[in-house]
Amino acid sequence: MQSQDVAQRQAPAPAGSGPVVDVEQAEAALVEHYPRLVRLAYLVLPPGLGRGRRVLTAHALAQRALPRGRKQASVIPAQASARDGDPGYAFVRLQVVRSALEAARSRKGWRRAALPPLLPQVWGLKLFPRSGGAEELALDQALSTLSGPARAAYVLRGLEKLSDSDTRKVLKAAGVADAGGALAAAGEVPEQYDLLTSPEFDPCSLQARPTDLMRRRQHTKAVLAAAAALAVCGALVALPGGGWGPDGAAAPLYAQNPAAEAALDPGKLVRVAPAAWESAARTDFSVWPARGKLTGDTALLRRALAVWARPGDTVRVSATPGTQTGGPAGPPQLLYAGVVDNARVVLLYDGLRIARYAEQTDGTAGAALDFARVDGASTAEASVLVLGRTDGNVRYLTAPWVTKVAKRDLMKPDAAATALSLTDGVTSPLASPALQPGTCTSWTVLELTDATGTRLATDLGELVPAHLTAGRPGATGEATSREGLQAWAPFACSLAAERSAGVRSVNAWAYAEQPLPEAGGTGTWVCTRADTWRAAGAVALAQFRTPGGPVGAVTAKGTDVAACGPRDPHVLAGVLWKSGTGSWYLLAAGDQDMASISTSGGVTASGQGALLSVKAQQGARAELKGRLTDGQSVSGLH
User: Are strands 368-373 and 316-319 parallel, antiparallel or unpaired?
Assistant: First the structure.
């Protein structure tokens, strides 16, 4: 094409070829309309280049639109009429379209043709347009499925406001053989032309981010040492398609692939039949049906998927510890879409995580995206999710097998549960202990009933409520039993320490009752263990309650220990206690398998059995050791 242009510059314009354009006129048009021309190039270029590469390439193509030999007083035939009747603009626009189509013609072709020239170049920074909304993302996805000519046709129609006739002329002049086919293909994409002027597609209004600073620092010396070798091998590395890139055969950043596109398509969301759980081999989140009145709101679902894949700077993203926040690998399962209090809420499940997208009912400002890990969830753990929290209250979405819900105060074991309404799986609001301010005087939990029985779940500030159990590790039962409620009542407030820790379940084990010295009554020892979804971070708390005390006190804590759990169903802990006469005692208690207890350090004593009480000084510190009936040694929790 270049040789033809040179010939045209050197020869007089043929009769009837239209007005002629000199170099100065073309330059003036380029300077005046530079932002629009760069935007045009950016939209026509292949999205597979990546946003940063497209930006630099678009600027390069626009700057190369002028003919070479600028100082020559040559003339250039105008190829088409500009929208404003400016033949100079028509010429540079055609040059931009032609160059962008050459870059998009084939994969090898665009790799070779789209390399920017010496200018512009950016070192140490990544430049890319500002992020738009879900609609812009969807349009970009749709345009990426078109061929280069079809994409150019769509942009000429929408951005340049050309008629089909003028668009066909420009495409033919740019070397497109089947301009009619390109127009037909472009017509299959919805006409959202106003979005083409969005900041999402503006390569002149950019955001800057540094490149990998740590990698640059770590490899500086290596780069200097290998300079000679790189000089020899540089030609091989730079070969298109034949170099040794850091990502190997991986596609460029932001390249499209079928799985990524399907994950963003609301039409491909997995929707489970309402009765699927009744015949399924397992009962977990994979058999939850899609519920809510907005499951047919395609725009809402598209926004939720787009934000999950690429949350903007204004989106508040949170995740339980150990939970990844990246986009789904494929189409996720839709669990819920509806209005909850003053927000539109979408719940999605990708087999490993629950994702909750929420936006205000009057706009998308202040959108939130929350993640929770749920891999390997049991029936009990997959029975309920948090829909939303407002004004100190929480609403839950229950599993399809839950038939009845109620609330109860965990600190009042003898009080009856209060029934809650259940509408399409959504509960009426109840007080959330996760939002409870100040002193803990109550702890409201959710009681769920299904065909297998009842169970308790508590809100700890995350998407998935924690399942509450009671009993000896390895033989635990539901906390709804009388013994379970009695065991939990004095120690319910200790659950506050497990907020936002990714807790999966919490068990309370009343492992010992100890007669107190000087006829002080009987104290109760309980070990609570909070296990997490990520396995690491389990916390065991030894707690002691004096006779008549409303709540228990934490006396020892172990993190990432096996004690008080199914792998090590044993525990030993101690506390300094002051009698009614002012005397101090060291009290120690182990589980029923404890054969003896000994202390060292600030207090030296020993005794047979699972209980030990010995006089001590105020503030004394002692180390506990125990021995089980099978001879195994046990250390006390600290």
Answer: parallel
Query: For residue 270, what is the DSSP state?
Result: B
45 φ/ψ angles, rounded to the nearest 5 degrees: -65, 155
Among residues 575, 434, 550, which one has the least CA distance to residue 491? 550
Please give the single-letter amino acid code of residue 549: G
List Cα–Cα distances, 35 to 61, 129, 138, 529, in angstroms: 12, 13, 23, 62
CA 179 from centroid of its chain's CA atoms: 42
The string of pLDDT tens digits covering residues 20-32 is 566 777 777 787 7
- As a whole number of angstroms, the distance between CA 634 and CA 638 comes to 12
pLDDT category, 287, cuts 50, 70, 90?
Answer: very high
Classify 92 as helix, strand or coil: helix
Q: What is the DSSP letter of 565?
A: B
The pTM score is 0.62
Measured CA to CA, the distance from residue 389 to residue 461 in angstroms comes to 9
Comparing CA positions, the residue from 193, 195, 185 lying closest to residue 137 is 195
Q: What secondary structure does DSSP assign to 38-103, as a single string?
A: HHHHHHHS-GGG-HHHHHHHHHHHHHT-SPS-TTS--EEE--S--TTS-HHHHHHHHHHHHHHHHH
Residue 399 main-chain phi, psi, to 5 deg: -70, 155
- Report whether 613 contacts 593 (CB < 8 A): no
**Residue 4 in this model has a pLDDT that exceeds 70:** no
* Beta-sheet pairing, 633-635 with 384-390: unpaired
Instruction: Scan for tokens 């200097």, then name that residue.
Output: 224
Which tokens sit at 391?
A: 């004004």
Please state at what angle helix 148-158 crosses helix 164-173, rounded to 10 degrees. Answer: 140
Separation of alpha carbons 637 and 511, rounded Å: 14
Reported residue count of the chain is: 638
How confident is the model at residue 210, as a pLDDT?
Answer: 64
- Residue 383's SS3 state is coil
DSSP secondary structure letter of residue 208: E
Tokens in use for 580?
């009614």
Give the C-alpha distances (Å, rounded to integers) separating 606 from 251, 477, 586, 633: 68, 34, 11, 14
**Element containing residue 625 per DSSP (H, E):** strand 622-628
List, for residues 529-546, the tens digit of each pLDDT value.
999 999 899 999 999 999
CA 396 to CA 248: how far, in whole Å?
46
Single out the residue of 491, 495, 521 nearest to residue 506, CA to CA. 495
Tell me how crowded residue 628 is: count the other CB atoms within 10 A of its CB: 17
What tokens were used for 181?
A: 């086919």
Distances (CA, A) of 75 to 356, 473, 606: 61, 90, 107
Q: Report helix, strand and coil shares of the chain as percent, to nearest 5.
A: 30, 30, 40
Residue 389: exposure state from Cβ atoms within 10 A (0-12, 13-18, ≥19): middle
Query: For the chain, what is the radius of gyration of the CA atoms?
Result: 35
Single-letter residue type at 206: L
